[in-house]
Amino acid sequence: MKTRNLILLVVLAGGLIGWAAWTMRPQAKPGSALIGTQVLPGLPINRVNKMVLTTTGSTLTLAKVKGTWTVANRFNYPAAFDKIADGLLQLSEMKVGQVMNVSDSQKGAFNLLDPVAVTTGRMEQAGTRVELRDENDGLLASLLIGKPFMRASPEGGMQGPLDSGSYPDGQYVQTADGHVVLVGKTLDRLTEGVKNWLAEEFINATADDIQEISITAPDRAAIKLVRAKEGKLFTLEGMKAEEGTLDTAKVNQISGALNLLGFDDIAAPTLSPNETGLEHPVAFEAKTRQGQTYTIRIGNTLTNDTFDRYIQVGTTWEAPAEPAAKGAAAGTNAVDAAKAVQQKADEAAKRAEEVKALNDRLSAWTFIIKSYRAEPLLIKRADLIKKTEPAGGQKTDTGLPAEALTKAGGRTLDDRRRTPDQTTNNGEEKQTPNVHRQTLNAE
Fold this sequence. Notes:
Helices cover 20% and strands 24% of the residues. The chain contains 8 helices and 19 strands. β10 and β11 form a beta hairpin. The chain is elongated.
């Protein structure tokens, strides 16, 4: 064989080997280049001025008004800023964990159908559309949040009735360009209802801090509970010994009513005082040993079937009286004394400013609170007093002690006065639920 032919064969063999190596190399999976990248790259979160969250049932709008985040669906009531900030940060840091090869016909299985365009029969397969807009309402970013990815619980995990078998460990989302990806964190907070976006700061006073409580309203006896000293029990002002004894359980209900008091919703500002019952409210006032006074005005129930109530709140602060001055401690000079006085003055000014800010934020609104939160605020004076039974036992109209009739299967006068639903089968008295009707002043 000639040398030239041999060289050609060697070159041709080398080319074939190179081509074979190229065709047999590991192929990159479609979309693998996206794994680990940000879903919303370069999102300018500081320019976001509005968040629009759309579901099949509603559109929730959170927007900045005069520099403050508000809930547009609730008359621009302040929004939970921390929740908005966390949501925006989560969106900006969200990364692709897996690229899904999903056709349009398969998107319903991932709850990734457009909530606006979805047909009636497939509404449960729609997602939550998130739009981030700037101050000029220009679109900065958008995506569709689908169902969470459920990971099976490992063997040996929690057993019993609370074992659900799986737990959320990621979320399916669709980007604006149509890619369906799985991200490593759940986005369920961005899919919550409007009430969950309202700023939660409200009234919070522990029972131990409260020194005085008053409850007044038209056509009802006034209540004034006073604690003589810190740590002492409340007494009912004007209560006479012959009336009975103070029901400590009821007193505890009243004094604990402001501990982490929360509201359920915001009422429409267009409602009149006559409609809300706040024209002639029940006024609940509590003063704390720190000098803060909370005033709550309780109105009507929302409807005859819904016992949640309208309320308005306000708060003021006045520096509590200083204890009697004692002699200056040894080694205390005029400079130290002046510093202490100034420090107290600064603390008082700061506290007054904080309380004023809270009052300004709350007093302009009418809130809706759950019925169980309203009940302690509406307790009447008669409910606070337990009647004292006459000495020697109750006498009946037969002249016999009540105990004797009870043992004989008889009924006392009080038994006859009770309605059937107030006694049990064995003749014992039942507690009738404290159901409030819509009109507050009706007895």
